[in-house]
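Narrative of accomplishments. A recurring question from our advisory board has been how the design workflow behaves on a single, concrete structure rather than in aggregate. To address it, we present the structure tokens for one chain from the evaluation set, followed by the sequence designed for it. No filtering or post-editing was applied between the two.
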């Protein structure tokens, strides 16, 4: 399954350019770390899944308040994260199913 990461990357870059995000050191650091990981050619699905988790935590800690540009990043990431987690869960289930059939 091929995922188009361009809209997510564009949303991330827009968030990094947002003055509201830049004023919040914690939020800016989360977004900047994701950009740096992408620049290092780390797998996009892993980078965005990690960022999604971090943004979710940020939202909880900050009483569900976040600048609109950062919210746009979180929304754009949701589908990628769900796809990645689904693939990981499927791989684990198949691995367990095949392992269970092997003699111990």
């Amino acid at each position: 399954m091929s995922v188009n990461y361009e809209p997510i990357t564009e949303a991330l870059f827009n968030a990094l350019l947002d003055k509201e995000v830049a004023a919040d050191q914690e939020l800016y650091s989360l977004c900047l770390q994701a950009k740096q990981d992408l620049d290092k050619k780390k797998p996009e699905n892993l980078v965005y899944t990690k960022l999604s988790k971090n943004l979710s935590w940020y939202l909880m800690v900050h009483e569900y308040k976040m600048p609109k540009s950062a919210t746009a990043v979180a929304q754009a990431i949701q589908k990628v994260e769900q796809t990645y987690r689904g693939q990981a869960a499927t791989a684990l289930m198949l691995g367990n199913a095949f392992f269970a059939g092997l003699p111990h």
